[in-house]
């Protein structure tokens, strides 16, 4: 009987089934990773439209190349985010960073926002401003850790660095972010 | 603020910031678009390996590097084998390789004149091999040696039938000179040889001598003994591609590529000297004055019959330009 250690983690198992042609398995992967991938891209690109387009491209690449995924080399999430990271870098290289005017804020269906939502939206607006001022690598770590909800190990695999380096980068990014927020009166 | 405090502020700030999720549209329809595009990519007839290669430039780079390294290794090993085989003697393992490379060079050469030069050079190699066989007393594969020597000499002779006049001018004298030299060498060897080598040497001498006779016929020289010269070059009609010396009416003063004035007085006059005012041409010098008339007499010092001294004039009236001219392999 298989022990827990011998069982594949869900995403890895789904990836294996997808590679065998199971579209439902891929649909589950899509449902699980879409928001984290989208948020990662959104906070780096500062554009909902670009983030959605790129997210779709990420999953297309994942599906087409899923046969190349080797679970021995790392978790599936890290592999998928590696694709997202590469596409993000290519996109930024091609187009350059865009200004604030391209941001399309999602206000839901036009219903009146609650005060908590207004504050959240304001924080989001400030966060977009300060993230622009972070170096690219620091911004990527922040987006992966706090918005894509990835572990240090997964971030390290995605960025091709050691966990220690990612940890150090994360601390530097948070300190930088904190300083920028302090300058704007947020404590 | 302390570093730890700054980090805490940033983390808390982000936790309370609104982080948008993917739109409902992307959730509902994005997957269908992705699946449709993936199916379209699969039906496109492109091998998966090629797709991976296109999407992975590093793979293409690696493949290119491997191919280049393989090519380099092949070139180096071929060059190495060629270099090692140059000293191979008949009977050794690499002798066949040496002959193979010689044939390859002749095949790859694009001109008959070049082929003649190569064959002449290879025949000189055969002579070195023969001397080595005599010195070491090991006549292995002497028959093969003879076969190769025959191929070199007769091959060059046949090629003479198909070259231009200019190439014949350039190659005839060195060719004959080399034949004479080789014949002389083998004549000296014929006596007192051990049984294993006497037959091949005799056979090679016959081949060489026959080719000498053929060259003399081609170039209009009479007789078969040594490099005899007819005064003024008058004699039998030349065959093949050696320049004619009899037809003065159509003769023009030309300067060969070697710089020797080829025009010879067909009347057979010897050493008539030059008309006054005509620049004299020492043997071997170029006469550039094309308007001079009558044509300059480039009569050469005559060699007595049977004189096999080094000054071989050749049947064409050229002065020998020295050994190995034009056929260094």
Description:
The complex is a heterodimer of chains A (187) and B (329). Chain A is mainly alpha-helical and 187 residues long. Chain A has one domain (7-183): RNA polymerase sigma factor, region 2, helix turn helix motif (Rna Polymerase Sigma Factor, Chain: A, Orthogonal Bundle), CATH 1.10.1740.10. Helix content of chain A is 70%, strand content 0%. Chain A has eight helices and no strands. Chain A has helices spanning 10-19, 23-45, 48-64, 76-95, 115-133, 136-147, 152-159, 163-183. The termini of chain A are far apart. Chain B is mainly alpha-helical and 329 residues long. In chain B, 54% of the residues lie in helices and 0% in strands. Chain B has helices at residues 3-16, 24-43, 48-55, 57-85, 95-108, 112-136, 142-159, 165-189, 195-218. In chain B, helix 3 (48-55) packs across helix 4, helix 6 packs parallel to helix 8 (165-189) and helix 8 runs antiparallel to helix 9. The longest helix of chain B is centred in the N-terminal third of the chain and has 29 residues, at 57-85. The radius of gyration of chain B is 37 Å and the shape is elongated. Classes of the chains: A mainly alpha (187), B mainly alpha (329).
Number of domains of chain A: 1
Distinct helical segment count of chain A: 8
Largest sheet properties of chain A: none
Q: How do the SSEs of chain A run, as a string of H and E?
A: HHHHHHHH
Instruction: Provide the CATH top-level class of chain A.
Output: Mainly Alpha
- Give the distance, in angstroms, between the N- and C-terminal Cα atoms of chain B: 86 Å
Please report which band the strand proportion of chain B falls in: under 5%, 5-15%, 15-25%, 25-35%, 35-45% or over 45%: under 5%
- Enumerate the spans of chain B where pLDDT stays under 50 for 5 or more consecutive residues: 222-240, 244-329
Given the structure, what is the number of helices of chain B?
9
Uncertain spans of chain A, ≥5 residues at pLDDT below 50?
1-6, 99-113
């Amino acid at each position: 009987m298989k022990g827990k250690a011998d069982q594949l983690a869900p995403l890895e198992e789904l990836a294996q089934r997808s590679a065998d042609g199971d579209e439902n398995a891929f649909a589950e992967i899509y449902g699980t990773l879409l928001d984290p991938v989208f948020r990662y891209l959104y906070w780096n690109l500062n554009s909902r439209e670009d983030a959605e387009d790129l997210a779709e491209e990420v999953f297309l690449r994942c599906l087409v190349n899923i046969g190349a995924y080797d679970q021995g080399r790392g978790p599936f999430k890290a592999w998928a985010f590696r694709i997202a990271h590469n596409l993000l870098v290519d996109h930024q290289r091609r187009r350059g960073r865009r200004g604030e005017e391209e941001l399309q804020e999602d206000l839901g269906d036009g219903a009146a926002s609650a005060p908590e939502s207004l504050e959240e939206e304001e924080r989001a607006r400030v966060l977009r401003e300060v993230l622009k001022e972070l170096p690219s690598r620091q911004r990527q770590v922040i987006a992966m850790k706090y918005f894509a909800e990835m572990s240090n190990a997964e971030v390290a695999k995605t960025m091709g660095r050691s966990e220690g380096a990612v940890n150090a980068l994360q601390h530097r990014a948070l300190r930088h972010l904190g300083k920028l927020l302090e300058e704007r009166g947020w404590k | 603020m302390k570093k730890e405090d700054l980090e805490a502020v940033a983390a808390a700030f982000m936790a309370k910031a609104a982080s948008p999720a993917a739109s409902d549209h992307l959730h509902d329809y994005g997957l269908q678009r992705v699946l449709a595009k993936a199916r379209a990519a699969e039906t496109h007839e492109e091998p998966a390996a090629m797709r991976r290669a296109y999407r992975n430039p590093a793979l293409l780079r690696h493949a290119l590097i491997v191919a280049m390294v393989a090519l380099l290794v092949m070139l180096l090993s071929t060059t190495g084998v060629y270099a090692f085989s140059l000293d191979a003697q008949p009977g050794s393992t690499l002798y066949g390789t040496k002959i193979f490379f010689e044939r390859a060079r002749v095949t790859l050469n694009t001109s008959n004149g070049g082929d003649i030069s190569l064959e002449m050079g290879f025949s000189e190699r055969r002579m070195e091999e023969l001397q080595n066989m005599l010195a070491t007393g090991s006549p292995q594969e002497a028959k093969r040696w003879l076969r190769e020597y025959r191929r070199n000499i007769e091959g060059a002779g046949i090629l003479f039938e198909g070259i231009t006049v200019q190439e014949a001018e350039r190659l005839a004298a060195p060719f004959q000179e080399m034949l004479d030299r080789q014949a002389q060498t083998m004549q000296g060897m014929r006596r007192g040889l051990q049984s294993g080598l006497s037959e091949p040497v005799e056979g090679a001498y016959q081949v060489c001598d026959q080719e000498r006779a053929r060259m003399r016929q081609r170039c209009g020289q009479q007789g078969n003994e040594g490099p005899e010269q007819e005064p003024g070059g008058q004699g039998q009609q030349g065959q093949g591609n050696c320049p004619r010396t009899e037809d003065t009416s159509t003769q023009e003063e030309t300067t060969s590529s070697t710089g020797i004035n080829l025009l010879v007085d067909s009347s057979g006059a010897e050493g008539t000297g030059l008309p006054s005012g005509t620049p004299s041409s020492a043997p071997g010098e170029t006469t550039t004055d094309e308007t001079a008339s009558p044509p300059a007499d480039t009569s050469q010092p005559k060699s007595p019959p049977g004189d096999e001294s080094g000054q071989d004039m050749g049947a064409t009236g050229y002065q020998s330009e020295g050994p190995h001219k034009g056929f260094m392999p």
